[in-house]
Amino acid sequence: MKSPFISINGGVCAPRGFLGAGVSAGIKHSGKRDLALLISEKLCQTAGTFTTNSAKAAPVLYCLKHVRRDLARGVIANSGNANAGTGARGLRDSELTAAMVAGTLAVHGYPGHRDQYLVCSTGRIGVFLPMSKIRRGIHAAAHALTRNDHAVTEAIMTTDTFPKRIAVEFRMGGKTVRIGGMAKGAGMIEPGMSATGRRPPLPLHATMLCFLTTDAAISPAMQQACLNEAIGQSFNRITVDGDMSTNDTVLFFANGLAENRPPRKGSSDLRAFQAALNHVTLELAKMMVRDGEGISRVVTLRVRGAATAADAELAIRAIGNSSLVKTSWCGGDPNWGRILDAIGYSGARLDPTRLDISYNGIPLVRKGLQISKNLSKVRQLVQKTHFSIECDLRLGKFETILYTTDLTEKYVELNKGE
Amino acid sequence: MKSPFISINGGVCAPRGFLGAGVSAGIKHSGKRDLALLISEKLCQTAGTFTTNSAKAAPVLYCLKHVRRDLARGVIANSGNANAGTGARGLRDSELTAAMVAGTLAVHGYPGHRDQYLVCSTGRIGVFLPMSKIRRGIHAAAHALTRNDHAVTEAIMTTDTFPKRIAVEFRMGGKTVRIGGMAKGAGMIEPGMSATGRRPPLPLHATMLCFLTTDAAISPAMQQACLNEAIGQSFNRITVDGDMSTNDTVLFFANGLAENRPPRKGSSDLRAFQAALNHVTLELAKMMVRDGEGISRVVTLRVRGAATAADAELAIRAIGNSSLVKTSWCGGDPNWGRILDAIGYSGARLDPTRLDISYNGIPLVRKGLQISKNLSKVRQLVQKTHFSIECDLRLGKFETILYTTDLTEKYVELNKGE
């Protein structure tokens, strides 16, 4: 099958009409860029997904109120401070941030209201935002707006070691349209997001932030539905450390500047749009895993043959978040007994005498017993930086996937400091 | 209130009629002691609690079959190999081990049947037991039986850095009776045991092994009920790394040699027995936490004010098992935001604007906001090796406790090797 899209250079500013800026406002002690501003020349229709954590940060509560309700000009995001655990003052600070952006951009030719700006934060929890620094930062950012997305992408990084961006182009409704994206991740990564911030039916568990842009015209309901599907197969399928953040947010801006005919339900145009969005989000999610804090290995886990979808989810999350499984990967040790152990305590139905486990397709466990002749091949394999593990419970037809990492001394070192 | 018991020297051999031996059978490559034999001169009535992991090790399946059904002479336990993930052959090996002990001890003046011996294993999963080494070890152990519990206690250690033993003495039914105990822990520690090995109503998550002995006479039903209560407030209330083992086992042997009048339901004698057993198991559980793999801090967590018992449990397990909370403790950082985050994703009901958090009784968070004037005091406090944290959700009347540890570079180092 011919891919319905092609990859192009750039990220969030690849679609028509988007501008970005990233400046150093002095929120981070390091002096690195810490304030990102992303706007659209034309007002956007916006979709979003948000952490299901009950201790939602102030900017998440702010976005939940304004996303989908109002047309948006763009988003302001700071790194270095999560504005979480900051109560009513935190919420006022998010509102004030949006108001400052609206006021500043009005004099730069973008008249508009506070509610047209969404707000995101990432960084330490429990500290109030330094509002005077943010005010100065917003002025600097408004002057720095550009079609180059380099600075805006850098400004949301925290412990990320590389900026994460991607863009694709495809035909839809008679026109060429584009989708672009940027993201940050690294630690506190096991997103479990929903469009309402309410818990999805399955028990899921970063701060991860992701901004997506498109110049496509698409109905608001379809935009949100496509985003939900895309997030369900990307960010909600990764874990670094099993800690779901108070701040996880994905925002998706569509400004319609491509002037395509909006796709209809069930159309090949909609399928092309979904395929492109799935690709953009999955690639960003995989970059996030690859850049997990201190990690040395990336593991693609598959659980098949579960009795129920909930069982598949319980089993795969237990494996992907087990300290003992993750440290064994760090050591390049195919210690499948720890995988068996994790499935055993996950709560998923398990018959140990049926379990098959294979590594990159090489069977190591069949019906619960080790195939010793394959041990040395698998041992070499788990020394690599990327490998996959498949566990077949052989109890039913449900399956799932999770992109995860090892647990290293460096992760502990990075996170024990303040 | 006067304590109903006094502490005495020793461990499992402190009660009348118990003998122990610990030898090196060559199962561990290090040549350290790895085979423990504990027997009673008089046949014992036995109670037990077992891991609720669905991938139960062969010796756990063996014990579940024989405990409570048969009078027992004692237990044989090996370290260095878990005999888990070993299928039908593993089960036959456990049976064979018991048969070898019965055969060997018969010639040492303890005639009896295979079913009179319980079997435990701890170590790597997925490797068959070296039965010829075990046979030779059993012969050596039978010759080494002694009233000194030093060797038997050492022989069940894996990554433990010190042997764990305790004994108490108290009056009951007109006689002086004793309870002794020994345990091993260190890694794969978040026991969730029940008398049947079936899952308890609350979702709980080492290999930990614990053997308890008493010379008291007590009815079998009361012995098991007292053990269930003791385990519920001790081993099932600790976590090192959140990984519930395939092998967790507590066995409690009562030989009646004290010749006391058995306690009656609701009697002060029964309360004295329970108090003594609670003390023995809680002290052993705390030693296990203090000796957690690579740990540098021990934290006593309390959650109060939860809306339900299940919520209290979800919240406290999320905090006690969060990689980010545990690494912040390692760094001596009172990063309460990570605690807020963990409660938030735990699934427990939470109103962040009501949450109070205190450290050793010093309030640091009130109604979800930091009391900044106490920050430096708390910062000094979390540099210590032991401290307590109390989270009050202020939503209801349910509370619980969990003894836990930090997560260190050394933990990763210890567990990444084979």
Description:
2 copies of one chain form a homodimer. Chain A is α+β, with helices and mostly antiparallel strands and 418 residues long. Chain A has helices spanning 58-66, 87-106, 131-143, 150-155, 220-232, 268-290, 309-321, 323-330, 336-346, 375-381, 409-416, and strands spanning 6-8, 18-23, 35-51, 72-81, 117-124, 164-172, 175-184, 193-194, 209-214, 249-254, 298-306, 356-359, 362-366, 369-370, 386-392, 398-405. In chain A, strands 1, 2, 3, 4, 5, 6, 7, 8, 9 and 10 form a 10-stranded mixed β-sheet that branches. The longest helix of chain A is centred in the C-terminal third of the chain and has 23 residues, at 268-290. The termini of chain A are far apart. Residues 201-206 of chain A have low confidence and may be disordered.
Helices and strands in order:
2 copies of one chain form a homodimer.
Chain A: E1 6-8, E2 18-23, E3 35-51, H1 58-66, E4 72-81, H2 87-106, E5 117-124, H3 131-143, H4 150-155, E6 164-172, E7 175-184, E8 193-194, E9 209-214, H5 220-232, E10 249-254, H6 268-290, E11 298-306, H7 309-321, H8 323-330, H9 336-346, E12 356-359, E13 362-366, E14 369-370, H10 375-381, E15 386-392, E16 398-405, H11 409-416
Parallel strand pairs in A: 4-5, 9-10, 11-15
Antiparallel strand pairs in A: 1-6, 2-3, 3-4, 3-8, 3-10, 6-7, 7-9, 11-16, 12-13, 12-15, 13-14
Helix pairs in contact in A: 1-2, 2-3, 5-6, 7-9
